[in-house]
Amino acid sequence: MNDINTALRKLPSIDVLLLQEQAVALEKEFGRTAVRAVYQRAVQQQREKILAGEGAGGLPENLHQAAATLLRDSVVPSLKPVYNVTGTVLHTNLGRSALPTSAIEAINGVASQPCNLEYNLQNGKRGQRDHHVEDLLCELTGAEAATVVNNNAAAVLLVLNAMAEGSSVAVSRGELVEIGGSFRVPDIMKKAGCELYEVGTTNRTHLHDFERALDDNAAAVMRVHTSNYRIEGFSTEVPEAELAALCHDRGVPFLNDLGSGLLVDLAQFDLPTEPTVREAVESGADVITFSGDKLLGGPQCGLIVGRKDLIARINANPLKRALRCDKLTLAALQVLLQLYSQPERLQEQVPALRLITREQAEIRRIAEQVLPSVADYFANSAKVRIEDSKSQIGSGAMPVESLASCSIVLEPLPAVSDAGDQSAKISPNSIARQLRELPTPVIGRIHKDELWLDMRCIEDTSSFIANFQSNKLH
Ligand SMILES: *Cc1c(COP(=O)(O)O)cnc(C)c1O
Q1: Angle between helix 240-250 and 207-215 (nearest 10)
Q2: What atom in ligand 1 is closest to the CA of residue 260?
């Protein structure tokens, strides 16, 4: 007890510490407020250690060191780049798609200076932020008008609220999907102030089912792309054009949530086709919603295209103001859409398209280049080999289709204990953790007790290799 009291008494005061050379140096770099705060924390930590009987602690030198560490850690961003070798190209948890270089330049261009976000340079009057992308969206989709919000979930919420607040909306039971754990059609419907009118059954829905809903005063019909799953076998769904004709006959809007909207036909890249936004417009949808950062390969946003009168109604809804995009998003989106009007350059310029169309042979070459440094790094913990594998697009796009790819596989070695007996194996989780602890974390996938690193999304091979080498110095 006496020792503890002595140690506590020996803890230097904050004011004394702050006058010492090391603290003065830190103050020049980080400012007085932050420095004082970390010294208080450092002293507090020491005090707790002493009270817990963990040593006498309180040397000024230790406190200066602790304060410096706290300060340096406080300026390291927690949001940082990682290598996505999960095999899922558009991984929502990893930020979905990387942006085209020109879109990044556009973001830089408007981030550091004022810009004409809502200012018309021709007449010097107030402008509209969506005008920077509306014409392009109309050209690319054939729609009459367009608007943009924060993401596709926001787009659906806004559209439902603007079209059918206080009324019911007919949706096929086969389309009442949950996407990515938090987007559920019934929940969004409720939050939008609409009542869900369920139509048909999970596997079969007919036109007369929708007729009945409209007889019951449904104020709109919504189709939802069943992004992340597919009903196969004994199933029927009503063709979009028939649904549209029925809605138009009854004077209610036909809404189509495409999820991963496409502006070009993927058949030109030898990928399975998905309906394009233009096809949805041509089939008669009045309002169409889709994501900016799924297959489109752009920034996070939700795109809404459709009939001019309905888009005007959507823009006049107070939720639009709450859900609008910022200038950085709009800058990137405009450049992305400009790339879509030059289709020959798309595959090369848009990372999402470049990565999903990558040839297996090229991915294997990457795996072969990278293999020695990975093998070297894990020399004591895993046996390393190359295997063919399948990657998927992700974010609900084409759930069933997978892409031929190539992976580096880490098979954990038996752990050698101090006594030399090979009892347990090193766990795949501990290898996954080591990968996450690299300077740029490497995020793979555990499959059958092995770690699979799908090389599809690795483009800068030398940085990837250097990442495994730099860490060895520590
Ligand atoms: C992904 C998806 C959404 C949600 O889009 P976010 O861009 O993630 O907000 C909504 N509807 C469908 C059909 C989707 O696939």
Answers
A1: 20
A2: 15
Q: Give the Cα separation of 170 and 166 in Å (integer).
A: 13
| Residues 392, 390: Cα–Cα separation, whole Å | 7
Closest CA to 183 of 163, 167, 160: 160
Query: How many other C-beta atoms can be found within 10 angstroms of the C-beta atom of residue 125?
Result: 8
pLDDT, one tens digit per residue, over 374-408 is 999 999 999 999 999 999 988 776 666 789 999 99
Of 105-114, 190-199, 417-426, the range with the lowest mean pLDDT is 417-426
Name which of 395, 383, 366 is nearest 454 in CA terms: 366
The tokens describing 290, both together, are: 């889709």
Question: What sign for the dihedral angle of Cα 368, 374, 380, 381?
Answer: negative
Hey, which bits of 62-218 come out as E strands?
83-84, 145-149, 168-172, 178-179, 183-184, 195-199
CA of 180 to the centre of ligand 1 (A): 8
Q: Give the residue carrying structure tokens 């018309």.
A: 120
For ligand 1, residues with CB inside 6 Å are 151-153, 156, 179, 183, 224-225, 227, 257, 259-260, 291, 302, 396
pTM score, two decimals? Answer: 0.91
Gap between the Cα atoms of 238 and 86, Å rounded: 36
Size (the chain), residues: 474
CA pair distance 62, 209, nearest whole angstrom: 75
> How far apart are the C-alpha atoms of 42 and 63, rounded to whole Å?
6
